[in-house]
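YM 10:42: DUF4292 domain-containing protein sequence, as discussed on the call
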Amino acid sequence: MNRAAAAIFLALLCSACPKRLEFGPEGRIEDAPTLYQHVRERQAQVVNLEGDAKLRVDSPQGSGTLGTFLSITRPGLLHLETYDFFNRPVASLVSDGARFGVYQSQGNTYFQGPSSPENVSRFLPIVLPSEELVAVMLGQVPLLPPESMTLTLDEKERVYVLTLVRGAAKQILRVDPRHLRVVKSEVRGVPGYDLAFEDFKQRGELLFPGKVILTAAQADTKLELRYTEITLNGRPDLTLYELTPPEGAKVVEVDAQGREVTGGGPVSPPPPAPGS
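YM 10:58: structure's back
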């Protein structure tokens, strides 16, 4: 066998060999509660984010990609602005965790009221509490409080599989064995949504996903957030979370169900929840 043939043979042989699983400094973890605690600790490392992203929405209400500026701080501070292809403002959302304001450029209308899931859904076509939306955008999985949990190692997918169970609900987490970060979450047994985190990059001492994908099958909705230029754990500009209607905008007060409120109470029915 000549040298060229030998080199090709060795290359093919090596490509056929499975790569060795890499574990972090903790080594292989065999205990489910231990991995669960590590996951919680890794997720808690990021407390705020500011910068630019591309937001892709696929839903019954419409589909498209928007430029997005965002500033988010745990537990429930949100400031999101979206722009069209020509960099024209489309909508904005601000929440201080208790109150919200959504401005829609089409109609020059500003909605304000309690920061409920129904009201946040005026900005995104999915019903989520602001605290949960903040967590997801910070690359974190809202974890099911488990009554029991199991742990296996999937050597083919090269991930830990941590399964959390509470009553009829089951959350299946796929966890990178080296960095102990969740790369995928699936909720079964109860209404919920799936999450996937991709394109992890090292940002200082933090490993952070460049892409967050949320899939709500029951609502036939998928959101994909791809970060472009962001900073993590900086000093947040708290003025971004002030609830101030744009000058000249029509201001509409709504209740927690999204119904318009006048002095006599709600006067219009709530908008339908996505997928209902």
